[in-house]
Amino acid sequence: MTFAFDQLVFTPADIDLARSPLAGKLDAETYVLGAFNPGMTRLANGNLLLMVRVAEALKHPVKEQKIHAIRWTDGAYVLDAWPLELVDTKDPRKFLIPGGGWKVMALTSLSWLLPVELSADGTALVEVHYDRAIAPQADYQCYGVEDARISKVGERYLMTTCSVSPERHCTTLYSSNDALDWILEGIVLDHQNKDMLIFEGMVGGKFVAQTRPLGDLYFAYPPGSEWRSGPSINLSSSPDALHWKPYDKPGIRPHAATVFTARMGGGSPPVLTEDGWLTLWHGVEPSGVVGIYRTYWSMLDRDDPSIVLRTSHEALLEPAPALTEPLKDLMYLDNVVFTTGIADGGDHYVVASGEADLACRITHISKRAFDAWRGTAAG
């Protein structure tokens, strides 16, 4: 598929670490490991806002045969050290600490969120709002704030994030009247329920969200089922966006017809169209250390979003190596596109993605791309 616009619009080179929340608070040299996975919404002035995840990492994490990680505590940033012989550093984004009967890991970076204002069509940088950056401010965020997803419901902006700590890997909610000044509302989903996406509109008078609970055990579907066991995109509803009850019905599940959804999860907040709720999500084909991430789409019933009207087995967005070629010296992953935002652009959608866990990608996708499924059955 070809696109009228498909470019990287924000990269690590665009960040001034002298204005980072960590600047002057850590006795160590850092660099931007990635500026990626941006939540997106439209501001009152018509411009688009990206809430960029900035993964700030130690330039020299290994000293004296120990690997170090950054941790926030009581308003300060400190370094923790583990002996190299006790950890597994195969994945550049983290290191594993074996033992204990379950997986324990630490991150090689600490993430914070940077508001980046783009032009109305998303093609040009307007302003970087360092004074509105979001950094850890609670114990459950001591290892960082990750992967914002922004929805506007009525006149209120709601932003979900992943907050990371030894206490829990949870989903937290921020709210705002203008998408620039945010209030932390606290934890809304507990341990390892990632990719929470609040629908941009109410369903039956309630807030609705996609969720993706994670676990180490999944029960098998019967032989010959059209579904494959594994992580899936579930649904929850809430009277106030704070207290959530899971749907009894399943949502979008991995399909046995394709290996590209061996692992899957939410992408952009569902938006209402004349055909139903359009949702973009990610599927992962097993390959290498992290797999190949692609973007897919589904159309959900407007009154009961547990009903999938149509799911495409063909990827909407593929990883784009040509886009990251100028940044090849900074790359530590490939084969990843992770869509995180969508906005109406008239005859097209403006779609925001993280590319290679490194940079922010904006793609203009014609609304006609979703027309061909009309009159066909869900699959």
UniProtKB/TrEMBL annotation:
SUPFAM superfamilies reported in the protein's UniProt record: Arabinanase/levansucrase/invertase
InterPro entries, A to Z: Glyco_hydro_beta-prop_sf, Mannoside_phosphorylase
UniProt-listed Pfam families: Glyco_hydro_130
GO molecular function: hydrolase activity, acting on glycosyl bonds
Keyword DNA repair listed: no
Recorded superkingdom: Bacteria
Keywords linked to the UniProt accession: Glycosidase, Glycosyltransferase, Hydrolase, Transferase
Family: Belongs to the glycosyl hydrolase 130 family.
Protein name in UniProt: Glycosidase
Native source species: Sphingomonas qilianensis
